[in-house]
Design a protein that fits this description.
This protein is an alpha+beta fold and 575 residues long. It has 19 helices and 11 strands. The protein starts with 6 loop residues before the first helix and ends with a helix. It binds flavin-adenine dinucleotide (FAD).
Length: 575
């Protein structure tokens, strides 16, 4: 089995991330950067070892589902064992600050842990992913008293979390939420029903609910929603009004419990700004989106590994099927999909970590001049624009690629791939959900379009141009030029598009794919600049996607709002 802690990850730990700046900003000039970096490597090595060891059990017991016993969720034994091993190794809730018992590790490391967990078992990944996401949101938005009360148990792994947004009438459209939060003498109580709640048996629920005092006025909008911590037990150990009504039967991720939750006068603690909970939840969702991108990549890596191994073992027409040109092309395309997804995700997370470190520096260094402060603030602001665009794109690519790669792995296995016990089949069934939860792919590309509408492309493209200009290897020049042309082409096409938002929406997937192709192209070239063995990967990405980009740009530029009408006429043929 190829190592979980492979070169594609080590590249970022050793070369692509500026750990020197990161740790000095976060911890001060006297920090021992090398030992801090070595500690991160140690965390990932341990994680890789555990995840690798748990992989056979994850595949063997794939169909075992979580069960509801006397109102409590019971995980399948292999999922529980996997969780316990990560917990015992101190590998859960890694971003919690040291004052609450955590390790305060960079988002990059947290995300890589999720990716490895998912490669082994995508169900178990949902549990640790939500645990760390919920804890991070509490840390960011709750009062010190609430942090003190709830976070130490997250850091030790004794408590898990769930994120409760979806209701029967409120899926993609969270403005339709009707779970009600009522204030009684300074305390808050929740009433309502949430559906599809991952790890719904968890002790701590982070709930988006509509405030009673503004209920009718704010109905149908995301205003008037607040974010609440709602534990299943009160501080004295008695039960709070949070009930797991049912667990769903699903196509995939069977070991991940998906619950219907009922709140009946359940006491909850409001965090963040009242009436503005959607913003705080967006923070959690954005982190969760990067987590789901990692989940998709983990699944895709597992599928790709299976496909490459099988293509070398299986002989037809006297040769290994992997020696057939068509198969080689397919396996290379799968690899490009996985590496491209990784490239955009890591770029985005590196920016998040950079901003976190600058923020820590600004908070700590009180004696900085106004000029120095303003300069660093400007860097953070630009990074934030890039993060807001790259996050939905990373989620979109990482999960759609997971769906494609795992489907292609089934194809590589031929008839065996369609058997119930086939590993590619199991991985594909797990991959599908990644394109749906934390916002469907359609929602991701419309979010990306919104950011483009606000002008994000100019900053993102300026940074890409700068990075292309910094490449040192001469053999990359030709490819950097192709990416530059692609950037110009997107500028022309997107400019025309923004004249009509309805038409822009119908093109949002095309535009997102064009932007992805230049962002990933630049990042893969940067990788090839430090690792020459990645040249063919970068060159192939650029060659393939720049040809596609031209076709996409022509399609975007040649149409108009009448295309929507044409779609309606085509669909009407089925009436
Ligand atoms: C296994 C599983 C686990 C989940 N875990 C959680 C969880 O832990 N917490 C939680 O709160 N929720 C969770 N969800 C819910 C999940 O986030 C929603 O299912 C998802 O956001 C889509 O909402 P929906 O199912 O209502 O689909 P709908 O919103 O009804 O969408 C149906 C289709 O319409 C498309 N669509 C909708 N609006 C638009 C638009 N404006 N433009 C273009 N297309 C559009 C969608 O892309 C989709 O293809 C989970 C769901 C599943 C299946």
């Amino acid at each position: 089995m190829a190592s979980y802690f492979h070169d594609g990850i080590q590249l970022y730990l050793n070369e692509m991330m500026d750990w020197d700046e990161y740790f000095r900003f976060r911890k001060g000039d006297d920090c021992d950067v090398e030992s801090e970096r070595a500690a991160l490597v140690g965390v990932l090595e341990t994680c890789a070892e555990i995840c690798q060891e748990m992989e056979p059990a994850s595949r063997e017991h794939y169909h075992l589902a979580a069960e509801l016993v006397d109102g409590e969720v019971v995980l399948p034994p292999h999922v529980q064992e996997f969780y316990d091993r990560l917990k015992d190794a101190g590998l859960v809730s890694l971003s919690i600050r040291e004052e609450y018992g955590g390790f305060d590790l960079p988002a990059m490391v947290n995300n890589l842990v999720l990716q490895m967990a998912s490669r082994s078992n995508a169900s178990m990944m949902t549990i640790v992913g939500l645990q760390s996401g919920v804890a991070t949101d509490i840390q960011k938005y709750a009062s010190p008293e609430l942090c003190e009360r709830f976070l130490p148990a997250f850091a030790s792994g004794d408590t898990q979390g769930a994120m409760d947004l979806t209701e029967p009438q409120a899926g993609s459209d969270l403005g339709s939420i009707t779970t009600r939060a009522t204030e009684e003498g300074g305390r808050y109580f929740l009433d309502g029903q949430k559906i599809f709640i991952t790890n719904g048996g968890a002790e701590i629920h982070l709930v988006l609910a509509r405030d009673d005092d503004n209920f009718d006025k704010s109905k149908g909008t995301t205003k008037g929603l607040s974010l609440y911590i709602c534990p299943r037990h009160n501080e004295d150990g008695s039960k709070n009004g949070v009930f797991v009504e049912r667990l769903e039967h699903k196509m995939g991720i069977h070991g991940s419990p998906t619950a219907v939750i009922r709140f009946e006068h359940a006491e909850a603690f409001q965090i963040g700004t009242k009436g503005d909970g959607f913003k705080a939840m967006l923070d959690l969702m954005n982190n969760a989106r990067l987590g789901v991108a990692a989940q998709g990549i983990g699944i895709a890596e597992a599928a790709l590994e299976e496909a490459i191994r099988y293509s070398r073992e299986r002989k037809q027409f006297g040769v290994a099927i992997g020696d057939q040109p068509l198969m080689k092309n397919m396996l290379a395309r799968m690899t490009l999909d996985v590496e491209g997804s990784r490239a955009i995700l890591y770029r985005c997370i590196a920016l998040l970590d950079r901003n976190e470190s600058i923020k820590a520096y600004l908070d700590r260094e009180k004696n900085l001049s106004e000029g120095e402060r303003a300069e660093l603030q400007a860097v953070m602001d630009r990074n934030n624009v890039r993060i807001r665009l790259l996050t939905p794109l990373a989620k979109y690519l990482g999960t759609e690629a997971s769906d494609r790669v795992s489907r292609m792995a089934i194809q590589v296995f031929g008839g065996l791939g369609f058997m119930a016990e086939s590993n590619p089949g199991k991985l594909h069934l797990d991959a599908i959900i990644t394109t749906i939860y934390e916002g469907t792919s359609e929602i991701q590309v419309s979010f990306a379009l919104k950011e483009i509408g606000k002008g994000a492309l100019s900053i993102v493209f300026e940074e890409l141009q700068k990075e292309l200009g910094e490449l040192k290897s001469e053999n990359l020049t030709e490819y950097a030029d192709k990416v530059r042309k692609g950037i110009d082409r997107i500028g022309e096409a997107a400019g025309a598009l923004m004249q009509d938002f309805s038409y822009a929406l119908i093109c949002s997937r095309l535009v997102s794919e064009m932007v992805i192709s230049v962002v990933v192209g630049t990042e893969l070239l940067r990788q090839a600049d430090v690792r020459p063995e990645r040249f063919d990967l970068a060159a192939s990405w650029v060659n393939r996607t720049m040809v596609e980009l031209e076709a996409l740009a022509q399609r975007v530029s040649s149409g108009g709002v009448e295309r929507i009408e044409r779609c309606e006429k085509i669909i009407a043929l089925m009436d």
